[in-house]
Amino acid sequence: MAEYNVWNQSILEYFTSSIPKGRPVFLSLNDSKVIDIGINYIGLDENDCINDFEQAIREEFTIGETVYINTNQILNQGSPEYVGLLSAMVLASHRMIDDEEASEMAYFRRLSKLLINDDIDGGPPGLATGDEDILWNHWNEYLSKNGWIKTAKKGLGAWKYTALPISQSLLRDGDLIYLLKLFQQNFSAKKISKNLDENGLKSWILNHWREIKRKHLLDGFLSEDIVRSSEFYSCVFDLYENIDWDNLHADQKSFTKKVSIPKNIKCGLLRNIDEDSERVSYKILPRKPRGYKEVMTCFQDENGNQKKLKPSIRGFYEEIGEVDPFFVEDIEYEILNSNLEKIILRSKEFWVLTKNSNDPGNRFGTWHDFDDSLGTKMLILINGKEGILHDEMVMFKEQGLINWNGDPIICEGRNGSKWTEYHQCMVLKNCWDGVIPHPEAQDLFNRIKPGLLQFSSINLIGGLMIPEQNAWIIDHPPKIKLYGFEERFKAEISSESEILGTKTLETQFEYDLIELAHKKLDAGHYKIRVSSGEYLDEAIFNLIKWSDLTISNSITGELEDPIKEIKNA
């Protein structure tokens, strides 16, 4: 049996190693991911993973049939030695089957079964009220200080503590089975295709949400928190991709055990500009599967040559193979000597490219599929020179919803294909609910419209940013630029829950941090929050001294020369 500390470290790596800094981290452990971690990180047999994890948790945190958690001892160990325990709490919430079971009693019954192997009502003996709250607070603090977005949130009243693990459980076992049945029924009735991409599936869900009868799913898909809704859509697409459409009556319980295990490497586009010739080209941008343990990954290209995928910035591999953006059939490469099967670039009718602050080349690419478009400069590529999607873009512009720079540019590819590029696209308004898009343009509409209640976007620009750490050198901090649908927002900056300063900011103006904080900031972790009425938005960042700067290679973990890294950034 693997010891608890082995499971703890493996779980920590699984949920953070491929997540870029500045992105959200959900500790969404379910049985499928326990199996994935056990096989690929610890080397266990598939049939032993779940029992091994449960035994490791019980040996570490129970004495007899009593839970014993020494929070002071755990927190004094430096690294988050409690991640395995918190993920076990999330696992218990994932095991709630019926939608009505999203209650305190149902959660604690499953937690008791997991911790002391006894299916009793109420919390497991020895688990003091609030013990887990201390650990969740520390986990949120750990994520924030390391540049990720925290996602665990408390509830109200009786839900005060149980809401924390439930906020991490995205698609529970019952949700997976429910969605599988929903997709099966609609596929049999020819109401859903088996070839949708991420945005196509999102559009399908938004068009059929009234068919969904589970409150937990509706709360996720229609969440006003775009971070949470985006994660729901990503998880549902993982489910969708793993469905065996030729065997729709496969064992559902067995299906839920494997649905989170990645089968393929999904790809997007990356736009390159040659520094000498200024020639523009597009390449395939492979995305590292979430939680995938980094090993040498080889594939066979279209000419039968064996090639290696080279790790790049967090969450991605280096670009491969030049392509035209539009092609008829999906591009697929076979992966060799791996549990993964294929590298896949899907054929699409449009692409939405944005920039990634962690990319040293500052290039446009399909870095994120479900991000809010507000405050983001987009490069939108649409197949052909005219047609429905082009007409819809003109309609969006005429209604004042978006704008772009100059005239659309018509391009021609190596294979004779033509497409149109809309440069520097920006969303201008949030009143998209009154727009009824053409049925063939719903995917484009759902991709570029802002979130339900997204009224502002905080951009940190300039300064001397540390690669992949969501941090800046203290003497070269970023400026603040606010995009929003109001002219002014109230802003505040805080550190360790202490408000340092407030100021009213006007949108699309740049402000120095000292204007908001009213003093020069020391090294530390900071949060900027802006508000308008009941609406809130926030951004986190760190300031680091030169003397404290260490940069590790995101793949090897080895320390590298920070000066060299920053110059290359």
Descriptive overview:
Helices cover 30% and strands 23% of the residues. The protein has 569 residues and is of the alpha+beta class. It has 5 domains: 4-168, no CATH class; 173-257, no CATH class; 262-347, no CATH class; 354-454, no CATH class; 456-548, Immunoglobulin-like. A 7-stranded mixed beta sheet has the order 6-5-8-9-3-4-7, with no helix packed on it. Strand 5 and strand 6 form a beta hairpin. The radius of gyration is 24 Å and the shape is globular.
List segments where confidence is low: pLDDT < 50 over at least 5 consecutive residues. 553-569
* Largest β-sheet summary: 7 strands, mixed
- The strands making up the biggest β-sheet line up spatially as 6-5-8-9-3-4-7
Rg from Cα: 24 Å
Secondary structure layout:
Layout: H1 4-16, H2 31-42, H3 49-61, E1 62-63, E2 66-67, H4 71-75, H5 83-94, H6 104-116, H7 131-145, H8 163-166, H9 173-188, H10 198-207, H11 215-221, H12 226-242, H13 252-256, E3 264-273, E4 280-286, E5 297-300, E6 306-309, E7 320-323, E8 331-336, E9 342-345, E10 350-355, E11 364-365, E12 378-383, H14 388-398, E13 402-403, E14 409-412, E15 418-427, H15 442-448, E16 456-461, E17 465-466, E18 471-473, E19 479-484, E20 488-495, E21 498-506, E22 510-512, H16 513-517, E23 524-532, E24 535-544, E25 551-552, E26 559-560, H17 562-568
Parallel strand pairs: 3-9, 18-24
Antiparallel strand pairs: 1-2, 3-4, 4-7, 5-6, 5-8, 8-9, 10-11, 10-12, 12-15, 13-15, 14-15, 16-19, 17-18, 19-22, 20-21, 20-23, 23-24, 25-26
